[in-house]
Amino acid sequence: MNHRLNDLHLRRGRLLERIANQRATLGREAQPLRSSLYTADRLLAIVCIGVDQVKRHPGLAALAVAAFFIARPRRIWRWSKRAFFAWQTWRTVRNKLVVLGLRAGA
């Protein structure tokens, strides 16, 4: 009986070691996915925040949609492109400042 119990403990130890090795391997192999999943999580959080805002303030959302259809859509599209370009430029400049160490808190 004691011999059988020792064999079971030995087998359990080997299985636990194998599980630990498999977890470590899985962690190493899943590393490239981490940044992609982080980006997807951030995007999903932003969408959820937007949906919550629309649910809390449906009148403002309706007003924005009405303004879009009343105003000229081309004008809105043009200003949206300009705003996006300005935002991209700001991000690039900010990142360059961080790399150069010129930004506070870097």
TrEMBL record:
Highest taxon listed in the record's lineage: Bacteria
Pfam families: YqjK
Protein name (database record): YqjK-like family protein
Species of provenance: Candidatus Propionivibrio dominans
